[in-house]
Specification:
The chain is mainly alpha-helical. The chain has a domain of about 25 residues. It contains 1 helix and no strands.
C-alpha cells in the first residue's frame, strides 16, 4: 500500500501566528537565522 503525502505549507510569520491562534496543528516551523523585528521578540 502506498502512502499519500499532503504538502500543506504556510508562508510568513503573520500567517503562522494566525494559524496558531485558530488552534491549527503545526508540525514544523522554519525561521530564517538573524530574523529581527517586533514579531520575533527582538
Amino acid at each position: 500500500m502506498k502512502k499519500e503525502m499532503t504538502k500543506d505549507f504556510i508562508y510568513g510569520i503573520r500567517s503562522v501566528l494566525e494559524a496558531i491562534s485558530e488552534g491549527k496543528t503545526i508540525n514544523k516551523v522554519l525561521v530564517q537565522q538573524g530574523a529581527k523585528g517586533d514579531l520575533f521578540g527582538s
